[in-house]
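Holo prediction. Input below; ligand is 2-acetamido-2-deoxy-beta-D-glucopyranose.
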Amino acid sequence: MPSFMHVLTLTLLSGFASAASVIPSFPGLSVNKLNLVEANMAKIATHSWELGTLAETLTELKAPSLSVFSPFDLPPPRHLDSKLNASISEVLDLVTKVIRAKSPDSPTFIDGDGAAADPASLGVAVLLTNWTRTNLSDTSFEVAASQQLNHLLTVVPRADNGAISHREDQVQLWADFIYMVPPYLAYYGALSTGNESIALLQEAYDQCRAYREILRDADANLWQHIVLGTGIQDYTHWGTGNAWAAAGMLRVLETIRHSKVSSKFEGQKANLTSWVNEIVEATWKHQQTNGTLLNVLDDPNSFADSSSTALLAASTFRLASITHDYTHVPAAVKAFQLIEDSLTEDGWLLNTVDPLTFNTPSQPGVYSPEGQAFTILSAVSMA
Ligand SMILES: *[C@@H]1O[C@H](CO)[C@@H](O)[C@H](O)[C@H]1NC(C)=O
Ligand SMILES: *[C@@H]1O[C@H](CO)[C@@H](O)[C@H](O)[C@H]1NC(C)=O
Ligand SMILES: *[C@@H]1O[C@H](CO)[C@@H](O)[C@H](O)[C@H]1NC(C)=O
Ligand SMILES: *[C@@H]1O[C@H](CO)[C@@H](O)[C@H](O)[C@H]1NC(C)=O
Ligand SMILES: *[C@@H]1O[C@H](CO)[C@@H](O)[C@H](O)[C@H]1NC(C)=O
Ligand SMILES: *[C@@H]1O[C@H](CO)[C@@H](O)[C@H](O)[C@H]1NC(C)=O
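Structure of the complex:
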């Protein structure tokens, strides 16, 4: 991992001081503060995608060597030493609770309130729990994982270009899907062998490609939020939607890169990298002077949203650590400073969008589980 402090110093020394010199000091969150933010998230995460995002966030925060962003090859170790076992225990406990509560014939890990994609956000953690389990006669995790996979691949309806619907009852695409499903398909592939491995990694990539084909607006290089189908639609360039897309594609990219068959996917990895970069580059053009992004990225009448600001900063740090192109890091550092300043003493992120309406700020005293998670992801991505 490169140190972004080092990069900023170099930027300053090499004369490109204007962007970097407004940054008063290298920001960072103490471990205590991060633990508060995390405990708060765990308190308020209830929906399926919030639990899945919590599991991913806990992995990146507490057991980073088991995250796809670590430099280690996949699959992960089968046997966890006691230190690693303790670090990942909250994730394993969360998954165990979810799978114990699941009825054996349910095709999904958990109820998704009509969303086909959201339950799958728990999938990487379920696969990790299966892979590292000590009770080898307990097949419940792998049975659940295979039911969830088959449901996504063979039951959920698809758009004409092959995009698996975000919803169960009709074909409708949400940018959120990219964080919920492709990372799961890819991780399943990286833990499989032979043709299945290649087919699932390819499917993860194909879903990103198919979603981008439909959701991306070429003139803005940003993604719409919800299209096709009936009922709710949102054609805006929603900050959180673009953040889900960028962060999800990064997880797929890293899973492919650390898989045994990485060398068979050169073109796919290059495309994923450029698709993440496309969002990151378009995003920071709309950054406000205090570092924030707006809830609808390119709508000046929209309101400031710290949640999407945090996940887009996280994605910018992650991308830079892969490509070693640090162009957008100063913007993301400035955004991170705003996130740090938007945290209360007791670890709640202020000025978030209400993640259930998409288009209104959170009510005073109400906090966003996503905002809590994205704060942690931005901090661990910068480290
Ligand atoms: C791992 O941690 C769990 C608690 O989360 C504990 O029950 C189990 O015995 C530990 N396993 C090992 C191998 O240390
Ligand atoms: C579950 O874990 C076992 C190792 O204990 C592994 O052989 C199997 O492939 C895993 N299943 C999945 C779906 O990853
Ligand atoms: C291991 O899993 C099997 C199958 O679920 C179960 O019957 C058994 O009680 C478990 N063993 C332990 C030690 O938990
Ligand atoms: C894997 O794919 C190759 C090429 O398509 C095919 O020849 C082979 O039979 C497949 N193997 C398995 C185990 O499905
Ligand atoms: C990468 O994207 C380009 C441009 O859209 C496309 O022509 C190419 O087929 C893609 N590569 C792969 C491996 O999908
Ligand atoms: C940052 O600036 C935006 C306007 O560009 C404003 O709406 C928002 O309240 C500011 N945020 C903070 C934390 O001052």
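The chain has a mean pLDDT of 93. That is the main takeaway for now.
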